[in-house]
Amino acid sequence: MQDQLNNLIQSYAGIASSTIGHVLDQGHLPQIHAINQIGHAVGRVRTATLHSVNGMALRQALLNSQPGDVLVIDARQLEHRACWGEQRHRAAIYHQLAAVVILGAVTDVTALRNMKVPVFASSVSCLTTRQQGECVVEFDQQIQVGNTCISSGDLMVGDADGVFILSPDIARHHLEQFQQMEIQERQKRDQFFSEHSAQDYYHFTASA
């Protein structure tokens, strides 16, 4: 099973989120955007749901993660309070996560924008978690976002255009279609720029 998921992760490394968005609605995380400069992120989801102002137990989510995982934290109960910042992101880099997705706010945005490992969130806030009261975090529990159900073991695909989280079955079912769409898009682009100069259309020379 893990080998199959690893194969999917490798295959989706070449699939843009907008390609998925041409076909699927389910799996899209609305209002979740890239906070730092990223290219493309793909990985296996591990979920954590934060129910308290005290977020200290999120450290355990990092310890439970494997290199290449994507930590998805549901912090919606905290409303405008940020549960992720520079210090926790350093730990995510140390543990070699593929990305971090926060359903909620982040802080230390100036630092995050200059750090490695993609981080996605819905907003930025100076109001943060703190060591106050009991810390209540659920690990590896399903997270419901609209019509999308997120579970540990799902596949996350994220880039500057947004985030999709797909079950392995859905990801496998649509993979060939997405691959063909990517090929067709590259062919259209190559055909256009075989007849036109990319410098006339971009501020930089577009990559092949």
From TrEMBL:
Cofactor(s), names only, from the UniProt record: a divalent metal cation
Protein name: Putative 4-hydroxy-4-methyl-2-oxoglutarate aldolase
Organism whose genome encodes this protein: Acinetobacter lactucae
